[in-house]
From TrEMBL:
MF terms in GO: protein-lysine N-methyltransferase activity
Cellular component terms (Gene Ontology): nucleus
Top-level lineage group: Eukaryota
Protein name: SET domain-containing protein
CDD domains cross-referenced by the UniProt entry: SET_LSMT
């Protein structure tokens, strides 16, 4: 649908009439970055602020959260009808706010005037001032998405697009019997709501939602969300909840002094390069590492326990490769352990009937009941731990090598891509930096896993296993399980 716009300059007036207090700070529609290029709107200090001194205060009533959506519905019968028709969308803060954003966008749209929808609220103009041209990957062209081949963002984006389409289909199923929704949203002739509108609402929320401290939940905080991102050693402010004044405060960071004329910045998150591009559409200027990446793992199709493992474990099917504070590469995965053990090791499954007659899948480790989250700790305490760890390391190393090869072999296509209408320059540059950072992390991860593998092959347990061609027993390696305590 067509969107209604208000210039960002109006946010100053909006703030005044909605009790947003600015303390020697200002909302600037045009902020110039360190590279000399304009980076859009932001916040600026109009005087020096020492550690802990506030820049602004936003009433908690202005936080657009699931709870706020429910409050708005009490005064708006049309919104209340949406919530009652689509209760599953209200279960998470994100989908609750997305439903509200799409509803507000509908009220604001020039295509939907004259239907009498909506009750006046502070968010009507706030939504109009949010950017509608967002360079998040969900808005990449097909040509731009092709340039992601080999990156961890490629698979993540595929899954995200499927999820958005499923949510949009659910929204239609829930609301197509509501008369005004049928006419304004879904009618073949007069309906104007599309998947692009749902994607826009998702992009608005994902790029601006904050997790507030002191149990205040997750939501969009007007004006605070104007603060631009800076890296963990460069950002100069933080937000907090002041229960006494019932407001969200943006204050100067501890041990930092913000000078007059400085931009006020926050850190959006501490995730890796993929997460930054996925959620915010950019990489910080000073990023020197991908920091982390998530690679999907799968259980071999010839594994006789494959279906039972997947159904019982309910773990994210992948491995996280990450760099710690001392610049060392590590991996972590709960799923890989399910892929590494089988019946000959002691894993088994059985189906039991519960007291209410339902069938329940249970896992066993060496004939003792196994809880889903306990497998890793059990294997790490097992006398034959090194065998299982070696299997995990080999599986993850193969996955790292596969990803690195895919990224390397697609590099020529990336370098030869034509930048123009179908591939925008900022997107091309962002993808190029992501590719370089991830190939570097994959290379380091491969070397780390190779070292770990060499260490494990030299262990007594693994040597016995390799010599016998089967899982070792305490007798075959000539030691007692107590020796591994």
């Amino acid at each position: 649908m067509r969107q209604a716009f208000l210039p960002l300059e109006n946010l100053r007036t909006w703030s005044h009439f909605n009790d947003v207090r600015l303390f020697e700070a200002s909302i600037e529609p045009h902020i110039i970055g360190e590279d000399g290029n304009e980076k859009g709107g932001g916040l600026q200090a109009d005087a020096e602020h020492g550690p802990g001194k506030p820049f602004l205060a936003v009433p908690l009533d202005l936080v657009l959260s699931r709870e706020r959506v429910e409050q708005c519905a009490k005064a708006d019968q049309y919104l209340k009808g949406l919530i009652e028709a689509a209760p599953s969308l209200l279960k998470t803060p994100r989908t609750a706010v997305l439903l509200f954003l799409v509803y507000q966008m509908t009220i604001n749209s020039p295509d939907c005037q004259g239907y009498g929808l909506g009750v006046g609220n502070p968010f009507a103009d706030y939504v109009k001032m949010l950017p509608h041209d967002i360079l998040l990957p969900t808005f990449y062209t097909p040509e731009e998405r092709d340039l992601l081949t080999g990156t961890s963002l490629s698979d993540a984006l595929d899954q995200k697009m499927i999820s958005l389409e499923q949510e949009f289909d659910s929204l239609k199923t829930f609301t197509e019997d509501i008369p005004w929704c049928q006419k304004i949203w879904w009618d073949d002739r007069t309906g104007c709501l599309t998947i692009e509108d749902w994607k826009l609402a998702d992009a608005m929320y994902r790029s601006r939602a904050l997790e507030l401290p002191r149990g205040a939940g997750v939501g969009m905080v007007p004006v605070v969300d104007m603060a631009n991102h800076a890296s963990d050693d460069r950002y100069n402010s933080r937000f907090e909840v002041d229960e006494e004044t019932e407001s969200v405060l943006l204050v100067a960071r501890d041990h930092r002094t913000v000078k007059q004329g400085d931009e006020i910045t926050i850190m959006y998150g501490c995730g890796g390069a993929c997460e930054m591009v996925f959620s915010y559409g950019f990489l910080e200027e000073h990023a020197s590492s991908a920091r982390e990446m998530f690679l999907g793992l799968s259980i071999p199709t010839d594994d006789p326990l494959r279906v039972a493992k997947i159904r019982f474990a309910q773990e994210a099917p992948g491995v996280r490769i990450y760099v710690d504070d001392s610049d060392q590469v590590h991996w972590e995965s709960t799923f890989v352990w399910w892929a590494c053990v089988n019946q000959e090791d002691g894993l088994d499954f059985r189906v039991e009937r519960t007291l209410d007659g339902e069938m329940e899948l249970k896992a066993l480790w060496k004939d003792k009941e196994l809880h889903a989250g306990a497998l890793q700790s059990i294997l790490e305490d097992d006398p034959f731990r090194d065998v299982f760890v070696l299997r995990a390391v080999v599986m993850i190393q193969e996955r790292v090598e596969e990803q690195g090869t895919k990224l390397a072999t697609s590099e020529d296509d990336f370098q030869n891509a034509l930048v123009g209408d179908q591939v925008r320059t900022p997107v091309y540059q962002t993808i190029g930096r992501l590719r370089a950072l991830e190939i570097e992390l994959l290379a380091r991860a491969y070397e780390m896993l190779e070292t770990k593998k060499a260490d494990l092959v030299g262990s007594t347990v693994v040597r016995a296993y390799l010599e016998n061609g089967q899982p070792p027993t305490s007798e075959s390696i000539g030691i007692s399980p107590d020796d591994f305590s």
